[in-house]
């Protein structure tokens, strides 16, 4: 039997930053999220280049059996009364599940499946199972960056189209110093 020792990839738990390994990084800005936020006037008033979130992905081959992992850093802020959030998606392969792990900040994971929305608080150490056939979105009603590690099948894909008509059934809006969930449609 041959034996070798090697260093694993690493993540700094305090910042949620990968500190080793090749990364693919992508930042989503305000201008990329047409029609996502309820207050169109407030959305248009923000500079289109304002960063909303950055995803850093450890690449893997796009093959059956492979796993991708990535950290989403969702910045704090609001569009009108609505807190910054990710676009949100179903997986193209609807039967494929995902895990999220809270690393930094305090926020929310919104899950939606067949007319049912579930909100889970996300915080350092929280573990979230996203079942098959479930749309998911991160929301940051906090004052600092929200960072979460995700692990998902490399073949899952992202389907943003399916949510374009009606969107998620719940919006997270500022309410005094906190937030409230506003139900949009049945
Ligand atoms: O795989 C995931 O669910 C995450 O890595 C998301 O892609 C990430 O949070 C960005 O969200 P979205 O893809 O909805 O823009
Ligand atoms: Ni996903």
Automatic annotation (TrEMBL):
InterPro entries in the cross-refs: G6P_isomerase_prok (IPR010551), RmlC-like_jellyroll (IPR014710), RmlC_Cupin_sf (IPR011051)
Class in the EC hierarchy, top level: isomerase
A Pfam family this chain is assigned to: GPI
Domain Glucose-6-phosphate isomerase prokaryote: residue ranges: 33-178
Pathway: Carbohydrate degradation; glycolysis; D-glyceraldehyde 3-phosphate and glycerone phosphate from D-glucose: step 2/4
GO CC term (a single one): cytoplasm
Keywords: Gluconeogenesis, Glycolysis, Isomerase
Catalysis performed (reactions): alpha-D-glucose 6-phosphate = beta-D-fructose 6-phosphate
EC number: 5.3.1.9
Molecular function terms from GO: glucose-6-phosphate isomerase activity
GO terms (BP aspect): gluconeogenesis; glycolytic process
KW Cell division (keyword) present: no
Signal peptide: none
Family according to the record: Belongs to the archaeal-type GPI family.
Name this polypeptide is given: glucose-6-phosphate isomerase
Gene source species: Chimaeribacter coloradensis
